[in-house]
Automatic annotation (TrEMBL):
Name this polypeptide is given: Dihydrofolate reductase
Top-level taxon: Bacteria
Species, as recorded: Kribbella steppae
Phylogenetic classification of the source organism: Bacteria, Bacillati, Actinomycetota, Actinomycetes, Propionibacteriales
Alphabetical list of PANTHER family matching this protein: BIFUNCTIONAL DEAMINASE-REDUCTASE DOMAIN PROTEIN, DIHYDROFOLATE REDUCTASE FAMILY PROTEIN (AFU_ORTHOLOGUE AFUA_8G06820)
Any GO BP: riboflavin biosynthetic process
Single GO MF descriptor: 5-amino-6-(5-phosphoribosylamino)uracil reductase activity
Annotated region described as Disordered, given as residue ranges: 10-33
Residue stretches making up the Bacterial bifunctional deaminase-reductase C-terminal domain: 4-177
A Pfam family of this chain: RibD_C
Amino acid sequence: MELSVNTFVSLDGVMQGPGGPDEDRSNGFEHGGWLVPHAGEGQLDPVDGWFREADAFLLGRSTFEMMRTFWSQVTVEPDNIVSTALNTWKKYVVSNTLSDEDAAWGDTTVLRGDDIIDQVRRLKEQPGRELQVHGSWQLARTLHDAGLVDTYRLIQFPVVIGTGKRLFEDGAVPSTYKITSGEVQNGVVSLTLRQDGFGSVGTGDIVVEDGKEVLI
């Protein structure tokens, strides 16, 4: 399986607590629910497509508990692909504190220990389409720095939060990507980016030669 990270971000890269005031108040975050006033008709349509690419989900503990609380209540929408996927498909949650009983939500396995990167590598070796990470800020960063993220899917909203957990904080391993798809839908930008280089970023210069601007 390939590994993808799927998330909502602000213009300044914040991914913390987009869906509600109490989704993630850690570090004193006071802007939870910042996505909601900007979510117009059709803006979240790409999310259904994200989930149709998944065979399994990999989540951090906080995101797992938040999703379980919300999506386990969505039981009367048979055509809701997100609800169906999260409630019934294979899930892995990374946690050294959750017991198997605490993690009970459909087909869920707890990944524990100090070798999470190796465990995820083994999951990626299994047949299938995608192992998907949703939200899970700390986990997403760990997987990025290990070079395990094949694809990012982002919906970027036209709002600057100014504080909060960012998808790429300072110190992230330099990487390059190719945009494989992108569209503007009712004021938001939906992007799919595939890793094209890990561990370095090429540089160049802009100079003037014979009166012309030249990139070298």
